UniProtKB/TrEMBL annotation:
Ranges where the Tetrahydrofolate dehydrogenase/cyclohydrolase catalytic domain occurs: 6-117
BP term (GO), one: purine nucleotide biosynthetic process
NCBIfam families recorded: PRK10792.1, PRK14186.1, PRK14188.1
All residue ranges annotated as the Tetrahydrofolate dehydrogenase/cyclohydrolase NAD(P)-binding domain in the record: 136-276
Physiological role: Catalyzes the oxidation of 5,10-methylenetetrahydrofolate to 5,10-methenyltetrahydrofolate and then the hydrolysis of 5,10-methenyltetrahydrofolate to 10-formyltetrahydrofolate.
Subunit field text: Homodimer.
GO cellular component, one term: cytosol
Gene it is expressed from: folD
Key words of the record: Amino-acid biosynthesis, Histidine biosynthesis, Hydrolase, Methionine biosynthesis, Multifunctional enzyme, NADP, One-carbon metabolism, Oxidoreductase, Purine biosynthesis
This protein's name: Bifunctional protein FolD
Organism: Teichococcus oryzae
Amino acid sequence: MTPGIIDGKAVAAELRARIAARVATLPFTPGLRVVRVGHDPASGVYVRNKDRAAQAAGLDSATIQMPDTATEAELLATVAALNDDPAVDGILVQLPLPPQIEAAKVLAAIDPAKDVDGFHAMNAGRLATGQKGLVPCTPKGVMHLLAAARTPVAGARAVVLGRSNIVGKPMAALLLAADATVTIVHSRTRDLASECRRAEILVAAVGRPEMVKGDWITEGATVIDVGINRLPNGGLVGDVDFAAARQRAAAITPVPGGVGPMTIACLLENTVEAAIARRG
Ligand SMILES: Nc1nc2c(c(=O)[nH]1)N[C@@H](CN(C=O)c1ccc(C(=O)N[C@@H](CCC(=O)O)C(=O)O)cc1)CN2
């Protein structure tokens, strides 16, 4: 591992190996179903990678492909059938969905016990109130990366840039549960740069290419870049200006190869947790 660079691929590979070892000891095979609607190319890559990783870990995994023209009612009927299927422990509906389908309605229809994305309001509420539940994969992966980088979280000043239901809010809740002092900042925050400079842990999840500049980083901070932004030339960059930020950060995640691989590893972790909770 390059000093200061948090190798998400390596941490994810270790986690996937631990999960595979755990699955091998179970008296049942955890089942995962990923539902993809339409043909968004990036979603195609992510869904394929999820399926491969799940099968490699010994899960019973399959993708349900629905056409671009699928209606909300058809998707809800698919979710209902998966809710009722005893062989299925985890259900994930890949986002984004086509415009004719209201994502919130579909996510609310997933059985919270099978909601391996952790997006259902029941699981979000459990996380917010410190109860056990399924936790969204990307923020969960970030907590694993902080542990791997040996970044102390308890008592640390953590700043989360972004307030989405999928990353920003659950990220803040997890950091708070780990006793960090947490600030959420966003596009309407006054003087974002000064707020970020206060961070000992900075998590950028805003979806704007290289928005976080090198001089927003305090010397010795741990910087976690959740952004995956595709440039017109086909390259990928995060939300942080990596080259500049790494000069100041004690530890930083690259893009690609940082948080992304952890999202998939944590999906497997959630599926196994859901299976154990459901099947005893
Ligand atoms: N239902 C969900 N939909 C989406 C989620 C999610 O967690 N649940 N997150 C993203 C997409 N995503 C997983 O679904 C995801 C994105 C990126 C990666 C990843 O490993 N990225 C690589 C780069 C890959 C590339 O070249 O494009 C990396 O960062 O190294 C994994 C999963 C939106 N939808």
